[in-house]
Design brief:
By secondary structure, this protein is mostly helical. The chain contains five helices and four strands; from the N terminus they run αβαββααβα. A two-stranded antiparallel sheet has the order 1-4. A two-stranded antiparallel sheet has the order 2-3.
């Protein structure tokens, strides 16, 4: 069980501002995948690849944790400002994606979705750049492989048949073939985030519309 962290409202507001700056800075430099040019051909390379995968996963988990922490602090501030003591069972709440929100929280979360949208944009941008770079590297690899085969035929006076081409390819590929290191499954992660944002925005609009249409105001 996680131990709650206590803030004054002033400290909480300052923490939210700080977290937002950290989140935007982290999104800007985030790495979600990389291109490597070798298969696992040595213990050293295997260790480097495992470390790269660990760093990418860790960085992404830290970034999403910052976003969740920011939202949690902001939600607590909203409740305090509304005079709702901690632990109070709320009545006028809406459940979206398995979590309860007050109308005030929904309004704030609709604005702060910009953080998730920035992250999604960065992931899409990274995915596009990697796919484009990988295609270029594959073309370069094919050209280099062809030159390697031709040089091998000439150097060995060999017959260029299917067996010889396969042999040259097996020799050349492990250290030269471009490969994508994608520990997050970026395409699936993008799809998941898109669905989350679209569903959240849609449910927020529906919930607020229903709340505004059914809640009475008393004007004195």
């Amino acid at each position: 069980m996680t131990t709650p962290t206590n803030y004054t409202v002033t400290d909480g507001l300052a923490q939210v501002t700080l977290l937002e700056k950290r989140i935007l800075a982290a999104i800007k430099i985030a790495i979600f995948d990389v291109i490597t040019y070798e298969k696992v051909v040595s213990p050293k390379l295997e260790a480097e690849i495992k470390q790269a995968e660990k760093d990418i996963k860790g960085g992404y988990q830290s970034l999403t944790a910052l976003i969740e922490t920011r939202h949690a602090i902001k939600a607590a501030i909203i409740k305090v400002n509304a005079g709702i003591p901690p632990g109070t069972v709320l009545i006028n709440t809406v459940t979206i994606l398995g979590k309860e929100y007050t109308p005030a929280e929904l309004i704030e979360r609709k604005k702060s979705l910009v953080l998730e949208k920035n992250l999604l944009h960065k992931m899409k941008e990274a995915n596009h750049q990697t796919e484009k770079a990988l295609e270029l590297k594959k073309v370069e690899y094919a050209d280099k492989l062809e030159r390697h085969i031709a040089n091998s035929v000439a150097a060995q006076g060999a017959k260029r048949d299917e067996a010889f081409v396969d042999k040259c390819t097996r020799e050349f590929s492990p250290a030269n073939q471009p490969l994508r290191l994608d520990p997050l499954g970026l395409t699936k992660e993008i799809a998941k985030y898109e669905e989350y944002i679209d569903t959240f925005e849609s449910e927020i609009d529906r919930a607020l519309s229903k709340f505004n249409a059914t809640t009475l105001l008393e004007v004195v």
